[in-house]
Structure formats: C-alpha cells, structure tokens
Amino acid sequence: MSRTGLRQKAKLVLMTQPYSIATVLAQAPFCSLFNPLPAPRSIVTMTNNTHQSSNTHLEAVFKQKKILRSSVRKALKGMDPSSRSQEDNAVQNIILEAPWFRSSQRLCAYISCSSLREVDTSKVLSEILQNPAKDGHTQMGKKLYVPRVEDKNSYMRMLNITHMDDLISNSMNILEPAPVDGDGNEREDVMQATDPVDLLLLPGLAFDKSGRRLGRGGGYYDAFLKNYLELVKERNWKQPLLVALSYSVQIMDEGVIPVTPNDVPVDALVSPAGVIPITTAAQERCH
After folding, report:
1. Given a cut of 90, is residue 132 above it in pLDDT?
2. CA angle, 75 as apex, 72 and 79 as ends, to 5°?
C-alpha cells in the first residue's frame, strides 16, 4: 500500500476516537503516527512548576520551623529554675496518677536531658523500674523501652531496660541503653517485640492543641513513630497512645507550628495545667 493509502487508513481509524485526539494525530506528520508524540509543553511546564512550588513550600516550612525553634529555646532558657522544677513535678505527678498510665503494661518513654531542657521523666522512669515486668509478664508491672540513637540518618531504636544502670552516656552525654545487657545478650527492640506498647511518652520543643509537635530537627521520633505505627497496622494491633510532655511555655497557638507530611501528630499533651486530650482515642482514654 502506498504512503498516501496508509495515511488515509490511519485517518479513518483515528476518526473513531475522540475528536481532539484524532485531530491532533491526523494533522501530524506521517512519521509521528508511528512514533510517540513529545509531551505537550504545557504539561511539562505544569509538572515543573508543581515540583518547584512544592520545594518552595517545604523550604518556607523549614525556615519557619528554624525560627520557631530558636524562639522556644530562648523561652526555655529564660525559665526560672524553681518554676522549671515545679512544672517538672506537676507534669510527672499528673502522669503517675493518670488511669491511662497506670493501666499501661508496655510503654516507650524518653530519658530526659537537662541540657536540652526537656520535661523531666526521672520520677516516672523510677516508678516504672521499681516494679518492672517479670520474665515478660506484665500483669504486676510495666515493660519499658527507651531510645537509642544509632546514626545521624534519623535512625533510632527503642530498647528494653529493667534498671537505670542499663543506661550509658553517648557522645552527646545523653543517657541511652547499651545495645547488650550485662550478660552480653542483645536487648529487645520494640520493633521485634511480640506484643504492642500501650503508651509512648514523647519529648519535643513545641506543641499545639491540635496535636502538632515540633521536634529538634533530627527527625528521629517522626521516623520511629512512622515505622512503629505501620507495624501496628500490619499486625492489626490497637493503636498506642502518643502523649507529649510540655512546659507551659512550649504550648503554641493553633496554626503557629508548620508541618510537613513526615510530621506525626500526638494524641494528647500533658502540661503543668493538666492533660489536654486531642484525638478521639485520647478523649476516650483520658477522661
């Protein structure tokens, strides 16, 4: 068949398709009928603009977070030591008396660092470790997992400890569990545990009453929480309660804390003024 005949046949086939497609292809050079058409410039431009807009938005968010972190650090640094101590005690007493804490059997909790001006958790940890779970049984005690930073790529594990002596200072002089116990056995990683945790006590720099949490910029907790919550979903476990501990100066107005898709919100806040339940799960358990 001649080239003219092929073109006429192609037109006949194409006219059975939607008019816009048939018109574009029928008016194209013969070779383009047998080769892919380049993407319309408008689509390429729109994709590039969307990508650039997304990058610009993220850059703006990171800049806002940096400014807010600096502001909150100044506020924490300006806290009177006696006021800080009073707020530490108030937050911990609220936790220790809370039904959702008392009923928890397995939990993750951070080890407070005074140089980072985190809400103190020493009283809560001591209470847990004075009555730990025996041989994996939690009916009469609690099983505790605490954080260990493994590298600078936001990789953090939660390892089981039974005594404060299980902790060692890392390169930043922050207490964390040694990877093995006194007998040389590897500590249980919460990601390999056969049972779910009920509660996670979380640190942070700033929070709001809609559940937004501003960390210190390393992404360790957000990465861990994302992975653990995916594990919970895969195993069809009950969702743990995510509770952040906060000084009064760390609670922001709603909308002040910028977020990205990687930021994991919390279920409730504990401040010196009391428990602030945010999600439905928290409202049911923190009544």
Report:
1. no
2. 140
Task: Give the mean pLDDT of 3-26.
Answer: 41
* DSSP 8-class letter at 134: B
What CA dihedral angle connects 43, 48, 52 and 57, to 10 degrees? 30
Residue 287 has pLDDT above 80, yes or no: no
pLDDT at 11: 43
What are the E-state strand segments in 29-187? 106-109, 143-149, 156-161, 167-169, 175-177
Strands 213-214 and 206-208, by their bridges, are antiparallel
Rounded distance between C-alpha atoms, residue 128 and residue 103, angstroms? 12
Interacting residues of 195 by C-beta distance below 8 A, sequence separation 6+? 106
Could you tell me which of 23, 69, 111, 128 has the C-alpha nearest to residue 256?
Answer: 69
Average pLDDT over residues 181-189: 92
pLDDT at res. 103: 94
Task: Report residue 46 as tokens.
Answer: 């729109």
Cβ proximity of 250 and 204 under 8 Å: yes
